[in-house]
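Intended use. Records like the one below are meant for learning the mapping from a protein sequence to its folded structure. Do not use them to infer anything beyond what is encoded.
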Amino acid sequence: MGPRRAGPPQPRPGVPLSRRELGAARGRGARRQRPLALARRPHRGRGHGDVGEPGPVSRPLVGVDLGGSLIRAAVATGPATHGTPVRHPTPAGGAVAVLDAIAAGVLEATAGVAPAGVAIGVPGPVDPRTGLVYAAPNLHGWEGIEAGRLLADRLGCPVAVQNDANLAAFAEWTAGAGRGTRDFVFLTVSTGVGGGLILDGELVTGAAGTAGELGHVPADLDGPPCGQGHAGCLEGIASGTAIADRARAALAAGERSRLAAVGDSLDARDVQAAAEAGDALAGRLFDEAGRALGRAIGGIVNVLSPEVVAIGGGLLGAGELLFTPLRAAIGEIAFAVPLRRCRVVPAALGTDAGLVGATAWAVRRFTAEG
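Structure written out for the chain above:
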């Protein structure tokens, strides 16, 4: 086994990691790295969101990315690296079954060694101070679940609970598009629209733990509802779900488009393909989504003046269909001075961001190296 890496490479402001460094962040080469053990630092207690008590210094730290269909767990091997992930389907039997599966995945990742601390990203709003999950729309029976306490009871270690988009933001700031910055915003555009905020080098979650819900800023007073039923949200215009819904509504109203041949299975990928083939309706929907995102980013630039705004999520694959109207619209809202000091870039870590963020957050919360 080779020597343990002393720490991450020297940060370069606003510059993503190299391919080799990204490979490390995604776990490649992890077999040559030792698990990162808990350092000797006073535990900060329940008031800071870590439910349970710290273990001995020789025990590993684990990150968990909880999704509606997949649970991934991995041992941290450095401040922004992790070992080979364990993957298991998310059970459909309710909160108890999912919590049991998470605990089993953690112990599988550590080869049966009790962890010193665990950080988990949950797909829904949470209170990171108490470990409470307010709701998780893609997980049955996860309303008001004390995930931090319940996992700490199962694993015998402190557990830090965060929203999954916040941990993806932390991953991009630690090892991706925001690396080396102090003020960074991550916007994820996929089935829904979410985000995370790193300000003055700290992950910002706000009084209720829900800060960073960028998909629920107002975009159009008369716009369609978002996934939470609120009319006019950015998510109701710019998410993949919204693009598909708006295409179906236009077809039902009699608008002509090649999308009419797709049928009930129509989704954002179909709209993207039609737009790339020159379909007028599909092209307009992507123009409107991109413009709404760009204007929202312009507002973020005015309010927060970040160094970098990174955009991730499934809709990133649309490329210039989305980015051309997005870039053009930022200046409609943003002030010139903060905009000149802000770069708007694609996210760097892709689907690895959730797990990189969870393991990096475990390091940040439970060791002196974080």
